[in-house]
Amino acid sequence: MTDQLADAVLEQIRKGFDPERIDELIAKAVPEFIDEMAPLLAGHIKKDKKTLRANKRAERGFDRRLDKQWGKALDLYQITLFMCIELGESAAGRDSESLTPTEQNILEALTGLHVTACRVAGEILTLLSHGHPRGALARCRTLHETAVIAGLIAESATDAVHCDLAERFLDHEIVGRRRDALQFQKDHIALGEEPLEPEVLDEIERRYDEVIAKYGADFKRDYGWAKKFSPNDNFRELEEKASLSHVRPYYQWASSEVHCGARGLSHNFIEYRGITVRDVGKTNIGLIDPASMALSSLLQTTFALAAVKVSDGVDMDAILHMRAIQEIMSACGDALFEAQERIDRAEQDILKGMQKN
Questions:
Q1: What is the mean pLDDT of residues 71-90?
Q2: Confidence category of residue 274, pLDDT binned at 50, 70, 90
Q3: Residue 121: which region, alpha, beta or left (left: phi > 0; alpha: psi -120 to 50)?
Q4: Which DSSP symbol is given to 277?
């Protein structure tokens, strides 16, 4: 680019251009040059299949090496996930016709939360399997929130005063829908989208007014559905009531991977063979914490659904499966630590070899 620009300037000087006006010429020529060359460069890069294939081979090679080290643990994670899905399907399939409206709301809310938990746990498994533990940690934030809410709804099921918590939680959907709709209406022109139809907005406003009239003005808050159950309707207070406040440090750690703040930037650095490097891609370390946090939240959400008392009698099959899931989760935890220990020993051997040389 520099050579071509210099040739162009010299050509203009030979044609009689004033050398003292070189800066003016360059200022005019550079944008034109870039506009001309950028599409050519982009086209060249798109046609460079050799580099693309090389990068894909490197990615596949990394994934194979990661599977060799972590495969046993990740297989146990997947088995746990599959068992939770099956247990959730069984629990959600209970005969809802025999349930009261309150019990139906509880079952619907817990089933929805469990579906979310299973999906997110699967996303975390995919991220871990491809060497993205910090991305997995970010998804653990959602999974922890799901476990907290599921635990509270399950606990309130037998509380005569707060058994309507599930109904409040479900009704709160319109509060979020209205907020999103109003924001879309404000920005639809900038987005290049058509506005929402007046009939749609009217229906949203009608339903919104109904729930505010039913529950009060505080219902419009982010956790307004929990106001009656928890006067300090914030997530920290809900963690306390769900006996999960001890997970707060991990939750905050995960939050720093969700929100782009300065705290999260420090996670971009890792120690590698005696030096600090910026980690912009995959890594084969750090899988233990997100995997453990994810499984713990998944089990809590699953047990909330499977064990909630919305019908008479004890489901011995569900209890048996819950106990089996705990055993597999424990084995997964052991396998995770064993994998990290193997990697640590291998790195120590490499460092010792480097020191000898």
A1: 96
A2: confident
A3: alpha
A4: E
The burial class, CB within 10 Å (0-12 / 13-18 / 19+), for 66 is buried
3-state secondary structure of 271: strand
Interatomic CA distance for residues 224 and 234, integer angstroms: 9
Q: pLDDT tens digits for 89-134?
A: 988 887 777 889 999 999 999 999 999 999 999 999 999 999 999 9
Cα–Cα distances in Å, from 327 out to 59, 79, 300, 303, 323?
A: 33, 11, 14, 14, 6
CA 315, CA 306: separation in Å to the nearest integer? 9
**Confidence class of residue 203 from pLDDT cuts 50, 70 and 90?**
very high
Q: Tell me what pLDDT residue 294 has.
A: 97
Query: Residue 95 — φ and ψ, nearest 5°?
Result: -65, 100
Convert 43-53 to b/e letters by CB count within 10 Å (16 or more is b): eeeeeeeeeee
Q: Of 149, 126, 87, 163, give the one whose Cα is nearest residue 315.
A: 87
3-class secondary-structure state, position 161: coil
Contacts of 208 (CB under 8 A, 6+ apart): 174, 175, 178
DSSP H or E segment with residue 317 = helix 316-356
Query: Hey, is 275 helix, strand or coil?
Result: strand
CA distance linking residue 191 with residue 186, whole number of Å: 10
pLDDT digits (tens, 9 = 90+) for 176-197: 999 999 999 999 999 999 999 9
